[in-house]
Design a protein that fits this description.
- Helices cover about 40% and strands about 15% of the residues.
- The chain has nine helices and eight strands.
- Strands 1-2-4-3-5-6-7-8 form an eight-stranded mixed sheet, sandwiched between helices.
- Strand 7 (about 215-220), helix 7 and strand 8 form a beta-alpha-beta unit.
- Helix 3 (about 130-150) packs antiparallel against helix 6.
- The two termini are about 35 Å apart.
Length: about 280
């Protein structure tokens, strides 16, 4: 389903609940991902909710415009808000992984009263330190150059060879091949502009806005992803109504590496959010 937002067309996949008045859960993938990333997960999630998986701008079947402005935080938040309002006027739950988690966190900091729950997988709140921000921007510019000069096949081989994804070596080859095939359906302009407009270095840091978020928040990281587990221990201290679950024997992409454990944790959180909404 294609939804026309204020400036771009965004693709979504809608999985309605059988309940007449179900709460909506919106799912946001990471960099190089798409709605395809959630297809294994959604059938296992609680059927008391309606789910909408979103192709973020520059990814999947959504538009990938040349104008960098459309990829920056204010524009992305506006796009998401258009989509959310298309489906519901009630409070909803937002779930995001990595880049999608940063988008979800950015939205939650701006519109905290619109959320009844928040689920962040392997997410950061951006980089405050100017030196580290500049280092990350330089790194992303080098990645952009690789995307420009290499084929997508070569780029993804480089991207997935990073230490962050080393735990994927234990995933069956057939499962990895399916995920890779979906990623190759992205296009270069969308990936380049996503890094240029909403990379971790260029996004607006959110650390001074985390106390705006009041809804029940679940932070998920993998035990073998020490970098993001440490980041989320800090987020746990700053987001008032949050808890942090570390999934054993998993790396950065918990929903892909340990789907059953991921679903168990998420379903528990969804139940808790629903109980609070009934109070």
């Amino acid at each position: 389903m294609i939804i026309q937002t204020s400036n771009v067309r965004i693709n979504v996949e809608y999985f309605p609940s059988s309940e007449k008045e179900s709460t909506f859960v919106f799912l946001l993938h990471g960099f190089t991902g798409s709605t395809n990333d959630w297809k294994e997960i959604i059938p296992l999630l609680s059927n008391n909710f309606s789910y909408v998986a979103i192709d973020l701008i520059g990814h999947g079947k959504s538009d990938a415009p040349n104008e960098l402005e459309h990829y920056k935080t204010p524009s992305m938040i506006a796009q998401l808000d258009d989509i959310f309002r298309h489906f519901t006027k009630e409070r909803f739950i937002l779930m995001g992984y990595s880049m999608g988690g940063r988008a979800a966190l950015s939205y939650a900091a701006q519109y905290p009263d619109k959320l009844s729950g928040l689920i962040l997988e392997s997410t950061s709140a951006g980089i405050v330190d100017e030196k580290l921000r500049n280092e990350r921007i330089l790194h992303d510019e080098q990645v952009i150059e690789i995307i420009e000069k290499k084929s997508l096949e070569e780029f993804f081989k480089f991207w997935m060879s990073q230490d962050l994804f080393s735990t994927l070596k234990s995933i069956p080859e057939e499962k990895l091949s399916k995920a890779k095939a979906a990623k190759l359906r992205n296009n270069k302009i969308g990936l380049i502009n996503s890094l240029g407009g909403f990379g971790t270095g260029v996004m607006l840091p959110l650390h001074d806005k985390l106390d705006y978020i009041k809804c029940k928040t679940l932070l998920i990281t993998g035990e073998m992803d020490s970098k993001f587990s440490n980041i989320n221990r800090e987020l746990r201290e700053k987001i008032i109504n949050s808890r942090h679950e570390i999934v054993k024997d998993s790396g950065h992409i918990v929903h892909f590496e340990k789907p059953e454990e991921f679903v168990k944790v998420v379903n528990g959180h969804l139940t808790g959010v629903k109980m609070v909404s009934f109070d």
